[in-house]
Amino acid sequence: MKYLCLFLFSGALWAQTAPTPPVVTGSFPQLPDDEVVATFSDGAKVTMADVKAVFGFLSPAQQQGILHDPAEFLHQWAVMRKLSQMAIERKLDQQNPYKQALDQNRMNVLFQATVNDVLNGIVIEPADITKHYDANKLKYTQVKVKAIYITYSDAAPSATLKGKKPLTEAEAKAKATKLLADIRGGADFVKVVKENSEDDSSREKNGDFATLRFGDNIPDTFSAAIFKLKQGETTEPLKQPNGYYLLRADEVTVKPLSEVRDEIYNDLKNARMADWMAKLNRETNATVNPKFAPPKTK
User: Fold this and answer.
1) Tell me, what's the pLDDT at 158?
2) What is the DSSP string of the chain?
3) Which CATH number covers residue 155?
4) Which of 71, 90, 109 finishes a domain?
5) How much is the pTM?
């Protein structure tokens, strides 16, 4: 089929007749792509390939509606095609706002087509992936962390916490510093956790806090300290709004290249696409009437 109208009917149609399903279930009959599945009143023939192409543009809810009643889908397609042909006969496609909308939609489609074509044309060689991995192993490093948490409050104490007077910030830092000295002097970290940490969740797990990866959403001070540690080392006291942490690298591993190859491939491809877009932006200018958009002040 040489002409496919923009298939917009189904959003309104199926939204009224079928609930939105969580996933699309069902499938079309397994027919060859060149199999004609419908012939419209104007003689146009729709093949299985045409149906698949249109189906791929629709939302899951619309797709589910089509699978529920494929004959109605084809009927509505024929109606939309006839209406669009009537619009052309009446030269509505040459009148605004329809002409403007058609031009804008055409530009949007061609814009996306160009982006997809450029992206698909970017070649990432295996050597590029290996080189990136070797140069960025920190990004793929994982640290299994144990923690000791010492709380503080500089507010005037109105009550004791678990029978204890809250420590001030200075006292909490001093305690954390003392515990760190004990640990570096050979004290058993888990024993120190059990006797001192005020993070109930990690204390019950012998201090197990989390397995962290470079780039995780953690405070910058944590990231800078944790990913410098060798296995078995403990950070200096790390301040947080209500306490100090001592974090120990219980296990330091680097994900093997085989596990991150696809991630690196996508990162490199996206980075090259971003470079291409940045170059295009630099080379493209628009001279703007200052009456419409006054120059920005620095």
Assistant:
1) 53
2) --------HHHHHHHHHSPPPSS---------TT-EEEE-TTS-EEEHHHHHHHHTTS-HHHHHHHHH-HHHHHHHHHHHHHHHHHHHHTTGGGSTTHHHHHHHHHHHHHHHHHHHHHHHH----HHHHHHHHHHTGGGGEEEEEEEEEEE---SPPSS-BTTBPPPPHHHHHHHHHHHHHHHHTT--HHHHHHHH---HHHHTTTTEEEEEETTSSS-HHHHHHHTTPPTT-BPPPEEETTEEEEEEEEEEEE--HHHHHHHHHHHHHHHHHHHHHHHHHHH------TTTSPPPP-
3) 3.10.50.40
4) 90
5) 0.66
